[in-house]
Amino acid sequence: MKIRYQIASEDVAAFNLQHLNGLPAIKKRQLKSRVTLSVIYGLTALGLFIYEPGYWPFAWLLMFFAILWFIFYPKVWEQRLRKKILKALKDKQYGLYELDLGPDGIFAKNDKMEGFLSWQKIKKIVVTDNHIFMYLTEDDGIIISKAGLEDTFDWGKLCERVKMVRLIVCQLL
Questions:
Q1: How confident is residue 173, by pLDDT bands cut at 50, 70 and 90?
Q2: Out of 2.30.29, 2.50.20, 3.30.1330, 2.40.50, which CATH number does the structure's domain 2-7+94-172 have?
Q3: pLDDT at 170 over 60
């Protein structure tokens, strides 16, 4: 199965976010930041409720911010991280890629390189709504973007093929 597609910096940012969101240290740090500020706001509001009855409107506002922070912090964190990643990738150019998914592996080609990867070198395959990520190492991999595919290509067919390959890769590990 031959695939021709374009890669943009947004696709590389999505790959990096997918990778970072899976790291236990990042999840732990995100949870600490999310809970800590919510607890500080909440305890301050509680103190105002108990000890300063005249500041109830301010206390309610603090409680509201504590709840908002707890609910929306993951989205804010992801947007900030995406901006930082895109800023780092700003000058890099990505282009047209060709992949040939064969029974023995993947033949990859672009304007800078070409080579063959056996299925044994694929460590993990992640399929999202807009991307397919084939991890070669912990933080390096092949990115296939739905938006970058040629118009005539069937995304569903590709996802089915990759899911079959994922089963083969899991059996090889």
A1: very low
A2: 2.30.29
A3: no
Residues in a beta bridge with 3: 99
Is the alpha carbon torsion for 32, 64, 77, 37 positive or negative? negative
Q: Which two tokens stand for residue 107?
A: 């033949």
Q: What is the DSSP letter of 135?
A: E
pTM: 0.68
Q: Is the pLDDT of residue 68 over 90?
A: yes
Domain-wise residue ranges, the chain: 2-7+94-172, 15-88
Distance CA 126, CA 128 (A): 7
**By C-alpha distance, which of 55, 152, 149, 77 is closest to 162?**
149
Q: What φ, ψ does residue 106 adopt, rounded to 5°?
A: -120, 130
pLDDT band at residue 107 using 50, 70 and 90 as cut-offs: confident
Judged by average pLDDT, the poorest of 52-56, 145-149, 163-167 is: 163-167
What token pair was written down for 26?
A: 């990042």
CA 123/CA 4 separation, integer angstroms? 23
